[in-house]
Amino acid sequence: MFVQRAGVCRDFAHLAVTFCRALNIPARLVVGYARFDEPPPDFHAVFEAFVGGRWVMFDATRMSPLDELVRIAAGRDAKDVAFATIFGPASMTAMSPLTQTVL
Known about the structure:
β2 and β3 form a beta hairpin. The chain contains one helix and four strands. It is globular. It has one helix at 9-22; strands spanning 27-34, 42-51, 54-58, 70-75. The chain has a domain at 9-75. It has 103 residues and is of the alpha+beta class.
């Protein structure tokens, strides 16, 4: 994935967490809703690293403004913060999350 530069946001965030931990930098995966220029708002995975005495958020894909991410969960890895866990047959009929910046 790293060499081919192919994958989805969760793949890149998970890889960044792995790189941080290999350097003894505490890191965790974060998921939420994000605004994109194209397509419309959707789930997005980013990561946080503990640097300078605080947690700092990074987007390995640089696809969405981090200050507009609506955080849903944070955890050790993708298993802790799954976008969805589905048992049995399921089909999505529609999805239209709306996010709005509040000043």
